[in-house]
């Protein structure tokens, strides 16, 4: 898990979305590593994503930096690292909260893969994190199985 926040990375504000994200992902049965805090800077976000991919994590979820503010750069940091995008899941994440929080459609978060690691950008709000995990929960097991070459699609050439 990666929290992207200038203020939290400086210690000026406690990180609330990262720990909540970790708790919710544990609640759906995932083993979750530490929450990494990085500032809203392309290089810092990219290094955190590259490190997770090098460690061969099945999933890395970012929280924060997906809006329209000038320093919201998480999608710009994520995009060049992705091998493949998963636009349907990104659209579902945005749509989930739009009925109750119309500004949810302003999130620019991406979903895609770096090798066999699924990368998901969520908003930095606790509500966005809750909505995001609610969308991920029913599809995550299948998505991760497919990335490992399993699921109902089997290994390549099989």
TrEMBL record:
UniProt-listed Pfam families: MoCF_biosynth
Pathway: Cofactor biosynthesis; molybdopterin biosynthesis
MoaB/Mog domain residues: 1-143
GO molecular function: molybdopterin adenylyltransferase activity
Enzyme Commission designation: 2.7.7.75
GO biological-process terms attached to the record: Mo-molybdopterin cofactor biosynthetic process
Keywords: Molybdenum cofactor biosynthesis, Nucleotidyltransferase, Transferase
Name assigned to this protein: Molybdopterin adenylyltransferase
Species this protein is from: uncultured Frankineae bacterium
């Amino acid at each position: 898990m990666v929290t992207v926040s200038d203020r939290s990375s400086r210690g000026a504000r406690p990180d609330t979305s990262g720990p909540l994200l970790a708790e919710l992902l544990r609640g759906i049965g995932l083993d979750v590593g530490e929450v990494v805090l990085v500032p809203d800077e392309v290089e810092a976000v990219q290094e955190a994503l590259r490190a997770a991919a090098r460690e061969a994590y099945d999933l890395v979820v970012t929280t924060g930096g997906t809006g329209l503010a000038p320093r919201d750069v998480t999608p710009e940091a994520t995009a060049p690292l992705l091998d493949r995008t998963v636009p349907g899941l990104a659209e579902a994440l945005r749509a989930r909260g739009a009925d109750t929080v119309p500004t949810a459609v302003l999130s620019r978060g991406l979903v895609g893969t770096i090798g066999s690691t699924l990368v998901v950008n969520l908003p930095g709000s606790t509500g966005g994190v809750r909505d995001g995990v609610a969308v991920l929960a029913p599809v995550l097991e299948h998505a991760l199985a497919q990335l490992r070459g399993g699921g109902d699609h089997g290994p390549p050439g099989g």
